[in-house]
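Weekly structure sync, notes
Attendees: PL (lead), two postdocs, one rotation student
Agenda item 3: pending single-chain targets
PL asked that the sequence for the first pending target be pasted directly into the notes so everyone works from the same version. It is reproduced below exactly as submitted, 116 residues in total.
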Amino acid sequence: MKYRKKPVEVEAIQLTEENKNQVFNWITCSKEAIYNEKGSAIKIQTLEGDMVASIGDYVIKGVKGEFYPCRADIFEMTYEPVTTQINKWIWGFILAGGFDYVIKRIARRIFTMVKR
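Predicted structure, written out during the meeting:
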């Protein structure tokens, strides 16, 4: 049987050298910052145990307020920005002629109000 992930909005930040302190402070369950030859990382206490978010990984805040790391390639295959979904709908509406319809309705409404 196949399953599709439900469309759930999550908060996420990609961990970089520049924002590592901000991300560390955002994650209330962080155990420690790790600095090694591979670069900076953050150890996160997740529901499945301790996990490490490395530079380039995304840190996701789940629907229950839990935090967990996700590799960038997996994150980008699984998630898209919420604004992208809205933009797709808006552009679909405009390209389908919906924009003209709305403008005509507004103009008709204004004309009717001025006429009175």
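Discussion points:
- Residues 98-115 form the longest helix (18 residues).
- Helices lie at 20-26, 72-78, 82-95, 98-115.
Action: rotation student to compare against the earlier draft before next sync.
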